[in-house]
Amino acid sequence: MTEIIDQTVSFPTVLFTVPLIVCLLWFLLGLLVSGFDLGDGDFDVDLDGDGEIDGLEHLAAALHLGALGIPLALLMLSFGGWAVSLIFSLVAVQLDLNTTITIVVGIAAGLLCGFLFVWKVGGALGRGLTTELGAERSAAIGCLCKVRTTRVTPTFGDAEVLSGPMKTSIVRVRAEEGQFTRGDVALLVDIDTERDAYWIAEIEEQYRPHL
Q: Which of 29, 58, 135, 204 has the fewest CB neighbours in a 10 Å radius?
């Protein structure tokens, strides 16, 4: 354990130890201040807003800065570099390698493995942690639905959405009484926000799906 601590505060590992501590504190501070706030989920980072990914933007995209956020991406980069550099330093001591070789190879290997760690693991982690917003209720307008209740009236009725981003959702529907019964397929044409329900209309026979 003493040898591990010694190598942690010695070259080359110390070059990763300091950023690791700083990034960890930065990340934890972000959690305390604003909660678990990841990036916006954009895996291609257009920093200058010109619509093209070039220069440093390729590096930002490789580090998944848009999905992970800067603190978490740098924390992963520092951790990957720190772990590899520490392991190499411990092996170098056992093999009695030259100090200069140990430092140069330790830094190079640490940086390379740190970038690889963020590149390979960061993308999957970012996709797993990024929250996607649900579809807005207005997105169902123009979609097909199938009536689930025995009848639909201006004050009663449910249906299952059959298409679009709200597919399989159960929604309240409204129509003139006697127009629809259970199993009928209709078109969602308008939303009544006050009653939290959709108005539905008949579909012409040639456009009606066979369910």
A: 204
Is residue 91 within 8 Å of 105, Cβ to Cβ? no
Residues 15-25 have pLDDT tens digits of 889 888 998 88
DSSP count for the chain of H helices, then E strands: 7, 5
* Domain spans, the chain: 2-129, 137-207
CA distance 187 to 203: 6
Contact 54, 48 (CB under 8 A): no
**pLDDT per position as a tens digit, 154-174:** 999 999 999 888 888 999 999
> In angstroms, rounded to a whole number, what is the distance separating the alpha carbons of residues 27 and 69?
10
Rounded to 5 degrees, φ, ψ at 34 are -125, 10
Is 140 in contact with 188 (CB distance < 8 Å)?
Answer: yes
Could you tell me the CATH superfamily of domain 137-207? Nucleic acid-binding proteins (2.40.50.140)
